[in-house]
From TrEMBL:
<keyword id="KW-0833">Ubl conjugation pathway</keyword>
<dbReference type="InterPro" id="IPR017907">
    <property type="entry name" value="Znf_RING_CS"/>
</dbReference>
<feature type="domain" description="RING-type">
    <location>
        <begin position="169"/>
        <end position="387"/>
    </location>
</feature>
<dbReference type="Pfam" id="PF22605">
    <property type="entry name" value="IBR_2"/>
</dbReference>
<comment type="pathway">
    <text>Protein modification; protein ubiquitination.</text>
</comment>
<feature type="region of interest" description="Disordered">
    <location>
        <begin position="1"/>
        <end position="27"/>
    </location>
</feature>
<keyword id="KW-0808">Transferase</keyword>
<feature type="compositionally biased region" description="Low complexity">
    <location>
        <begin position="9"/>
        <end position="21"/>
    </location>
</feature>
<feature type="domain" description="RING-type">
    <location>
        <begin position="173"/>
        <end position="220"/>
    </location>
</feature>
<dbReference type="InterPro" id="IPR044066">
    <property type="entry name" value="TRIAD_supradom"/>
</dbReference>
<dbReference type="InterPro" id="IPR001841">
    <property type="entry name" value="Znf_RING"/>
</dbReference>
<dbReference type="GO" id="GO:0061630">
    <property type="term" value="F:ubiquitin protein ligase activity"/>
</dbReference>
<keyword id="KW-0863">Zinc-finger</keyword>
<keyword id="KW-0862">Zinc</keyword>
<keyword id="KW-0677">Repeat</keyword>
<dbReference type="Pfam" id="PF13639">
    <property type="entry name" value="zf-RING_2"/>
</dbReference>
<dbReference type="GO" id="GO:0008270">
    <property type="term" value="F:zinc ion binding"/>
</dbReference>
Amino acid sequence: MAEAGVIGSRRTTSQQTMTTTPGWRPPEWAKRAVSGIFTVYARIIMLTARTGPTTLSSPAATLVPLAAATPSSPAGSSREWELEERVRMSESMVGAYMPTGSHSRPGSGLVSSTYLDASRIDTRGGVDDRISTDSSLDTLKAQAIQREFEEEDARLMAERAALQKEAQRVFECGVCFEEYPEDYVTRIAGCTHAFCRDCLKTYLVSKLNDKLYPIFCPTCVADNSHAEPGVISDDLAQMLGLNDQEYQILQELQIASTSILLHCRKCKESVFVDRAEYEAASTLVCPLPRCNYAWCKACQQPVTEDGPKHSCDGSSELEHLMKQHGWKHCPGCRTPFQKSSGCNHMTCMSPGCNTHFCYVCGQSIIRSALRQEIETAVNAHYNRCNL
């Protein structure tokens, strides 16, 4: 009881300190704060009463186990009396640690701080330590539970991703309209149409037997709305599993698509040659080693490697022949001629030409049928020609 009296006097001192400012009345928030602090400390006292006696230290008084300080209390009501005493002591502690008048703002009467001075409470092994420990334990438990939830979410997400990856997707064949697993699909380059392997192979073989190449997508062909239909590539055709005969037909069609059939006029054989080379060449040569016959693609006339340059009208060959034999051209009609005898005054015998020219220099003298004009022109030419 002596201890309780000390604490009670301490509360009175605290209350007197708070009323040192003239005309000051605690505001509502201060009342609520004090009431809250009182409630907290009351719960702390109730908690320590269940777990065992606790020692608190303060500048004014020291609490000791109340059960030992009151041996004369009735046995049946000692526990209740101890709880009541602890509640009263908590009230005294709240009053003792309220802010003093020196902490208030002058002229306002408001307390500037409602925090307890931690330096005035000995928390070593006391109630505050237990509250802090319990709060830390609750935080650790909450963090552990949160980690468990996060780990469970991560595990479920991983399982879901694995199931989605392993899930078998299906597609609908564009020919038979049956559903097949995704790994059984075959797609044609140039379009997005999908087919099963059996249907596409059957379609491919039918086109090969018809000697059609390139082979277009069946859906694009049936739709007739695609400007550039998909084409079955050579690699896809080989992946579909053609037999030897079907594969040979495919190779022939592939060669024929980039080649042209060339027939040799000499050996009477026909062979495929590159289409681009055939279109660029003017002279064709049989590719067979035993033949090597060459001919003009335009006029089909033979061409010799060591002979004159080929011309379809024979002009190149004629020039070569005239150089060999010393023949001349009439400057009027370009008719070739050869001087057998006589002077250098030449007269073209072609009908309607009537050109007179010099055999030495090849220049035209006059084109006329009048004898007097011809003689005058011939005399004038030979006076200046270097014979």
